[in-house]
């Protein structure tokens, strides 16, 4: 049984000033509004509705914090990209996303979720460039991997790994599917490493 199944919802905040003490270790999840971020968090924690999944992408408008244990937290950042929301709201999200990544001391790793069929779009690249500049390790998680046949999936991952080298930072790439669990083990290993949780 994974320790991530013990994760509990802690707080929703409109910006970093409402997040609480900047201590311990936080791992943030970010991605375009339709990248399957909520589904990935639910798969990781084995909880069906920890993170709200929605047919309308972009429902995560707040920074949602989930507590693993004292001093260890998963953070679900507002989705960016497609969401059908007014520009002013979109700008506000981008601002809170940027602020969190630039000013939060306790963030120790960033998981960027991208649809395996359309990886590294402009906003994804911007986010990763920023993380690399801040010496933050990144796990690029290529979601919806079950949508591709095995050969095509491997080719996409190799292509993405090659593309990731251009960031000149600690950027790893893995395929992931929240429907059949592809890549779940890799995700857990990476989070354990960032959180400093010893592996069995």
UniProtKB/TrEMBL annotation:
Family: Belongs to the TRAFAC class TrmE-Era-EngA-EngB-Septin-like GTPase superfamily. EngB GTPase family.
Cofactor: Mg(2+)
InterPro entries on file: G_ENGB_dom, GTP-bd, GTP-bd_ribosome_bio_YsxC, P-loop_NTPase
Protein name listed in UniProt: Probable GTP-binding protein EngB
Role summary: Necessary for normal cell division and for the maintenance of normal septation.
HAMAP family in UniProt: GTPase_EngB (MF_00321)
Pfam families found in the cross-reference section: MMR_HSR1
Top-level taxonomic group: Bacteria
NCBIfam families: GTPase_YsxC
Residue ranges occupied by any EngB-type G domain in the UniProt entry: 23-197
Gene from which the chain derives: yihA
